[in-house]
């Protein structure tokens, strides 16, 4: 059983060109992340700050696994992802040094909470 927290803000996952500088509109929010690869730069941030000309998928909500979690733990993400998959809820997973986050579409948040509660997780 995990303790999970639903973060209040609505998030966007943005796709920018590979190797680009962080844009001036990128700002701190309760949760933000930058991932760079050879193919793209992805930014997760508060949806309200994303300019209309940026390629983005909005309407995400974050469910945080209360941490910190040790690096030796196994199956943490699976214990969240599996009940969501069984309920037909699509996810976007994100990990930090201390914990894991699962993003679900705002329209699926109720179904996600129900599935996670049924799986024995505690949700704030």
What gross morphology would you assign?
Answer: globular
Taking pLDDT < 50 over at least 5 consecutive residues as the criterion, the unreliable ranges are: none
Strand fraction equals 25-35%
Major β-sheet profile: 8 strands, mixed
Q: Averaging pLDDT over every residue, what do you get?
A: 91
Q: N- to C-terminal separation?
A: 13 Å
Helix content: 10-25%
Q: Helical stretch count?
A: 2
Structural class: alpha+beta
User: What is the number of strand segments?
Assistant: 8
If you compute it from the alpha carbons, what radius of gyration comes out, rounded to the nearest whole angstrom? 15 Å
Could you give the order of the helices and strands? EEEEEHEEHE
Oligomer: single chain
Can you offer a commentary on this structure?
The chain has helices at about 75-85, 110-120; strands spanning about 5, 10-15, 35, 40-45, 55-65, 90-95, 100-105, 120-124. It has about 120 residues and is of the alpha+beta class. Strands 1, 2, 3, 4, 5, 6, 7 and 8 form an eight-stranded mixed beta sheet that branches. The longest helix is centred in the middle third of the chain and has 11 residues, at about 75-85. The radius of gyration is 15 Å and the shape is globular.
């Amino acid at each position: 059983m995990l303790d999970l927290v639903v973060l209040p803000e609505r998030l966007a996952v943005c796709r920018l060109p590979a190797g680009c500088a962080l844009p001036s509109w990128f700002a701190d929010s309760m949760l933000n992340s930058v991932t760079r690869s050879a193919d793209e730069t992805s930014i997760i941030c508060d949806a309200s700050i994303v300019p209309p000309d940026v390629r983005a998928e909005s309407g995400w909500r974050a469910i945080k696994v209360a941490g910190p979690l040790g690096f030796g733990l196994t199956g943490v993400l699976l214990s969240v992802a599996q009940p969501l998959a069984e309920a037909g809820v699509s996810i976007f997973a994100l990990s930090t040094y201390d914990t894991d986050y699962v993003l679900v579409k705002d329209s699926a948040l109720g179904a996600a909470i129900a599935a996670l509660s049924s799986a024995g997780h505690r949700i704030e």
